[in-house]
Specification:
mainly alpha; three-stranded parallel β-sheet
């Protein structure tokens, strides 16, 4: 979701990339079409659930109205989708609305994997499509997904504020600000996540990746590109790699 021109502002990036022999990402982006098919299957709610019983009539009408305004179709066509899928759809659409100049074109993950392929370098992934789909669509109950979906629809300004802070910190390459965003608990957050939910998104995945990365990096010098919030915090990859004895420092 960040323009590729941003990469020109990162000192030493090209040299670091060219010094490696393989590229590592969260997923193998060459298999995204296959993943999209799996997502569509996993995104369907079990038959015993529907939005008329999951949420109140007022919330149903608000959600339906929001979907029609943002994506052009309402619950009459999207009503079989899991709430987590609708949350992701709304978040992506709002990002594109808030940052139209930043949200088009090739993703940074895709770019580096494409560049690796051009150089006939292998691309390695840290998790499977099934693992990421389970994290996104299956790690919470349907009821909890619905609760968070309704809360997000009721408080779009909160999502905008969080996006702005993350965007500013990322574009400024301010790892301390990113760490603060990851660690902070907002006292007035109307839609707080639980510690367990936060762990599923970041900590638990980092732990698994730190088991895999040493073996991958031992094969050949590796360029690793993952979401920025996986880098920071006590349980982040930077701290985790240092605990394993690696020297981690910024490119210059």
């Amino acid at each position: 979701m960040i323009p590729l021109s941003f990469l020109d502002s990162i000192a030493g990036l090209d040299e670091a990339f060219e010094a490696t022999g393989q590229t590592v990402g969260e997923l193998d982006m060459s298999k995204m079409n296959e993943m999209q098919m799996k997502i569509m299957g996993a995104a369907i709610m079990p038959n015993e659930y529907n939005y008329q019983t999951l949420i109140s009539e007022a919330d149903f009408q608000l959600l339906d109205k929001t979907l029609k305004e943002l994506v052009g179709t309402g619950l009459d066509q999207l009503g079989r989708m899991k709430p987590a899928m609708l949350s992701n759809l709304i978040s992506i659409t709002l990002y594109q609305k808030y940052y139209p100049a930043l949200s088009s074109g090739t993703s940074i993950d895709q770019y580096f994997q494409d560049e690796a392929a051009k150089r006939f370098r292998p691309v390695r992934s840290l998790e499977t499509a099934e693992e990421q789909i389970q994290m996104l669509l299956g790690s919470q109950t349907i009821e909890r997904q619905a609760e968070l979906l309704v809360c997000m629809v009721k408080h779009p300004e909160m999502l905008k504020e969080q996006m702005d802070k993350l965007q500013d910190a990322y574009m400024a390459q301010d790892i301390n600000a990113l760490n603060t965003l990851y660690e902070e608990e907002l006292p007035d957050d109307p839609c707080p996540g639980t510690p367990e939910e936060k762990d599923v998104m970041n900590k638990d995945r980092n732990i698994q990746w730190l088991k895999i990365l040493p073996g991958i990096m031992q094969e050949k010098p590796s360029f690793v590109a993952v979401g920025c919030l996986h880098l920071v915090g006590t349980d982040g990859l930077i701290n985790g790699l240092r605990k394993l004895g690696y020297k981690v420092e910024p490119v210059m």
